[in-house]
Fold this sequence. Notes:
Layout: E1 6-8, H1 9-12, E2 16-18, E3 24-34, E4 43-50, E5 56-60, E6 64-67, E7 71-74, E8 90-92, H2 93-97, E9 101-104, E10 117-126, E11 132-141, E12 152-156, E13 160-161, H3 165-168, H4 176-180, H5 187-195, H6 199-208, H7 211-218, H8 223-231, H9 235-244, H10 247-255, H11 259-268, H12 271-281, H13 288-291, E14 298-299, H14 305-312, H15 319-322, E15 324-328, E16 339-344, H16 345-350, H17 374-384, E17 388-392, E18 398-403, H18 404-411
Amino acid sequence: MAAVSKVFVARLAGLAVLGPDGESIGRVRDLVLSLRFDSAPPRALGLAVELSTRRRIFVPMLRVTSIEPTSVNLNTGTVSMRRLNLRPGESLAIGQILDSRVQVVDPDLPELAGADMHVVDLGIERNRTRDWVISRVALRGTRSRLGRRGETHVVGWSSVRGLTHSSLEQPGQGVTQALSQFEGMRAADVANALRELPSKRRQEIAGALDDERLADVIQELPVDDQTELIGRMEVDRAADVLEAMDPDDAADLLGELPDTEAEALLQRMDPEESAPVRRLLSHSPDTAGGLMTPEPLIVTASTTIAEALARARNPDLTPASASLTFVVRPPTATPTGKYLGCVHLQALLREPPADLVGGILDTDLARLGPEDSLEAVTRYFATYNLVCGPVVDAEGHLLGAVTVDDLLDHLLPEDWRENEPDDDDTVAAGRSRVRGGLS
């Protein structure tokens, strides 16, 4: 395929990044730019590339030999594994600059004089010095009173006014283009992308996400970022987001807030949603009661195999949670009636659909107590080769279940999402170090 010397940034997003031998390195997620203080066009410093491990790294534009319709090709297969970290004076094209409000000064477009326009894309091209610079800007006017989108215009960089570092700090920037890159992405990947953005931009994007989506994303953020996002929301919105979170994650977040702030949020939540969170907060966070989810997969003994399997197919359940179905006497909401036993997913798959789960109970599996320590929970999973285990109180009521993902969250260092073992210049398998700096 023919290489191109001009391309719009939005077309770069998602392209495969290939080494000289065609080996896959990752995919383009954004472009790092250096906005200048003079009228010279910004220079594209490098690509924000997402690896298969979800880590985002920086690849200098000097390493790019060609940009093709389906891939970005590098002159080396060696890349630094250091996490992308913007330096002063640098910005992300898609994450920060798109949706900015600007004005146009172009004698060929007098109808745009004085009108507020929004940046919808940036065109980059390679100049004679082999640098990639922003040469064109695609702009769109505000919507008409009938709700129709304004016409799109493509102008030269020199015709655009108001696109500076200080303007990016002003409130009220749109989020349409920024949100479009998150469509179809997993919550953990969206969380990674948000972490790279300045606080102001994170707040704008968070404000535009619906409660369910934002709750999923917040659960994947480090604790400091979680508390910052929740702390800057209006109380009612924060309560709505907490209601949409898994109770154990909501409890972990509230446990990081001052008691008065946490109580204020709990009082704004629906009582049915806050009750399980309050129960979790009553346990120490490093015990089974503090680790558990109060909403595992629970049925009665008269439930059919077919119905239990249908419940296990719920996409909102994690694979670990779906691995065990807990059988109790009514009520089935935690704390439940008497805990009778559990049924393993594999056992459900082996039995006739019309049979009842009460006939294939595993009553011998050991139970966790709510006050069991983190070490005891870890030994439990290692001993029984499980990824999910019941938490039962002294009276025999099922309180919830601990899953291995919750356990790992507490075994790893608190900052494990931010600091990875190879944050220094360690490298991908079989590759050498290359990156010294962003410029």
